Amino acid sequence: MPTPRHLTLILLLCVLGALPISAQANDATWQALKEGGLVILMRHSLAPWHW
């Protein structure tokens, strides 16, 4: 069962993903946030007992 932090992170990623990207700088920032968020999410999914 996902923790509240899981749900918050998923919601944040969905909101960020829904925002239109206009500039390349924003695109690069979003790419970094997305990759970082997915790494965190995968780590938490694979090792939920660390919470």
UniProtKB/TrEMBL annotation:
The species this protein was found in: Vreelandella sulfidaeris
The UniProt record lists the keyword Signal: yes
Protein name per the record: Histidine phosphatase family protein
Alphabetically ordered keywords of this record: Signal
Signal sequence interval, chain numbering: 1-25
